[in-house]
Amino acid sequence: MSDLFQRVERTPTPFAQIGLGGGPLGNFGSAISDEAAQATIERAWERGIRYFDTAPHYGLGLSERRLGAGLAGRKREDFVVSSKVGRLIVPAENPQEFDDDGFVVPGDLARQWDFSFSGVERSLDESLERLGLDFIDVLLVHDPDQAWPGAGSEGLESLAALKADGRVKAIGIGTNSVVGLDAHIQAGTLDVIMLANRYSLLTQDAVASVLEPAAAAGVAVVAVGVFGTGLLASPRPQAGATLEYRAADADALARAAAIADICEAHGVDLPTAALAYPLRHPAVTAVALGMRSPEEVDQNVARATTEVPPALWTALADAGLVPGGPVA
Fold first, then answer.
1. How far is the C-alpha of 298 from the C-alpha of 131, rounded, in Å?
2. How far is it, in rounded angstroms, from Cα 267 to Cα 263?
3. Cα separation of 139 and 259, whole Å?
4. What is the CATH number of domain 6-318?
5. Which residues form the NADP-dependent oxidoreductase domain (predicted)?
6. Hey, CA dihedral for 123, 124, 125, 129, is it positive or negative?
7. Catalytic site residue from 51, 58, 199, 277
8. 115-151 as b/e, with b when 16 or more CB fall inside 10 Å?
9. What's residue 240's pLDDT?
10. Is 58 a catalytic site residue?
11. Which residue in 228, 317, 224, 237 sits closest to 279, CA to CA?
12. pLDDT (tens digit, 0 to 9) for every residue of the chain, 328 residues total?
């Protein structure tokens, strides 16, 4: 297992394995106030969370600015921050009233793909300024699969140079796709993989291709999207809930309902099981959860500290709802 999060694990708290995901701090889906963002970060800190993830993409820099404000004055050695590169934030050629990429922010800025060394270095410098930090613990190539073939390799080469000069402590890829990750693991170019929507109670397609080689190579995996972007976030699946940012189909709803039934029979609610499941794999070092209020922080800390009986996993496997056998 990678020692990447060793500093977090040394904190006197049982919550080291969950992190605050910064998408909602960038007004993803709906807007929150600066005051709500500050209160969310403060509550996360009070409840022992010391890992914070963000990206320039989240609200065209808003998430990083808010996170920087929320962490200002904290001892730098007491927390871990991850951010990302690949999308430069530039003036929009055709400004709009609002951003058109899922964040409720003004549309006077735009994203520009750039994985070159100069682009990645510029992105890092701008992130450090927004965050008010001298270095970033973990810097990830963001969604290279959405850009062009080879973007991941180009970005990692750029990050390796920045890691060498100390402004970045660890590097990796943040992605929704498993394609090509095994090659990067074998090449030894990754410290961390942030894997979205590919390892959860509903989706296990990353086990053989990513998690097993990552565990063998000592690459840390941060699981995100463990609530399926909505479907697993409620004790009972809700009609109209989303799975991977789209409306869940009938099969997914039925499967989630069957999982919820077994969870209830074992005294555990569905979101608690969804949070616990990825952390059973030895490659998964942490789970990052988007949170937009102190109440959501409290809910997720309660879930993270709930004991899940081993019999639940056996029952889900016996029902064919998750893979059986021992955890890899």
1. 24
2. 6
3. 35
4. 3.20.20.100
5. 18-308
6. positive
7. 58
8. bebebbbebbebbbebbebebbbbbbbbbbbebeeeb
9. 86
10. yes
11. 224
12. 345 555 444 444 434 589 999 999 999 999 999 999 999 999 999 999 999 999 999 999 999 999 999 999 999 999 999 999 999 999 999 999 999 999 999 999 999 999 999 999 999 999 999 999 999 999 999 999 999 999 999 999 999 999 999 999 999 999 999 999 999 999 999 999 999 999 999 999 899 999 999 999 999 999 999 999 889 999 999 888 888 888 999 999 999 999 999 999 999 999 999 999 999 999 999 999 999 999 999 999 999 999 999 999 999 999 999 997 655 4
Q: Which two tokens stand for residue 230?
A: 């909505």
HEC secondary structure over the chain: CCCCCHHHHCCCCCCCCEEEECCHHHCECCCCCHHHHHHHHHHHHHCCCCEEECCCCCCCCHHHHHHHHHHCCCCHHHCEEEEEECEEEEEEEEEEEECCCCECCEEEEEEEECCCHHHHHHHHHHHHHHHCCCCEEEEEEECHHHCCCCHHHHHHHHHHHHHHCCCEEEEEEEECCCCCHHHHHHHCCCCEEEEECCCCCCCCCCHHHHHHHHHHHCCEEEEECCCHHHCCCCCCCCCCCEECCEECCHHHHHHHHHHHHHHHHCCCCHHHHHHHHHHCCCCEEEEEEECCCHHHHHHHHHHHCCCCCHHHHHHHHHCCCCCCCCCC
Confidence (pLDDT) at 10: 41
Q: How far apart are CA 216 and CA 210, in angstroms?
A: 10
Nearest of 148, 86, 140 to residue 117 by alpha carbon = 86
Q: In whole angstroms, give the CA distance from residue 293 to residue 108.
A: 27
User: What is the four-CA torsion angle of 107, 139, 179, 206, rounded to 10 degrees?
Assistant: -110
